Amino acid sequence: MLSALLALVVGLIVLLVSAHYFVVGTAAGARHFGMPPLLIGMVVVGFGTSAPEMVVSVLAAHQGNPGIALGNAYGSNIVNIALILGLTALIRPVNVPRPVLHRELPILLAVTVLAAWQAWDDQLTRIEALVLLLVFTGLMLVNICQALHGKHQALEPDLLCEMEAQTSPFPAEKIGRAMVQLFTGLIFLILSSRVLVWAAVAIARNFAISEVVIGLTIVAIGTSLPELASSLVAARKGEHDIALGNILGSNLFNTLAVVGIAAAIQPMPVDANVLGRDILLMATLTASLLLLGWTPRHGEGPGRINRLEGALLVSVYLGYTLLLLRTITTA
User: 94: which strand partners?
Assistant: First the structure.
């Protein structure tokens, strides 16, 4: 058991470091070959920053551990809104722009409802996975076209800033170094994900814990650390759009692409608790962001998540975690 715990910690550390270098190498390589900076930020870095969730869930599904795959994706969504956005608002109140209230949040809520509808029969088929991937592809294409024409901001407005910051030390002419970073990061990303999944399964079996619960807690928090770090830094700098866009973009990617790819590789059963507890909480948290964004308040105006509401979001996450721990102790 000690070896599994050690593997879990080491796997998480290597996962995060390798994902960082994978993003840096990929973005630098894309820039070298003439890819527009906006597309690098939206597509290349966007996929890269969500690589931990994607690789872990895909490997878990491939190895016959659907609980970890779904728990990681949906648990990361809950962590993003309740814990990360809550902590961000505690540091500095988060503005919710009107375009987000009119477009991104309704889309995310609709996608969450789609996830609930697909989970209603306690399984995810390849056809349902294809639907998720088609919706994701459509949203990405529309978002890229609108962004290129200057009509709309990207779903993840922090990505371009991350790309510029992360690739600036690596000039485009140093393509060899970029490729080494890309492939080294990818290799260690896959290896560390395999170690992480093995450790999570070992811990779950040793303590007779549901794999879903392991995915919702330890794995989800670990793979969400990049979002936590970037959102907290953005909050300290007063970049509300970056923090909020980071969370909304990550949740869309997790719900559509991560779950879609995992279920396409291996159709998976869906535990009843995933629908009645986890997806329900995802939908409630997303709807609460809409409500908080539209609610006027004295001296602040609408479109703002203040510190009190941030504390409430964190409290919801702590209560949810205690509920999961209770299911462990009563199992």
Answer: 305
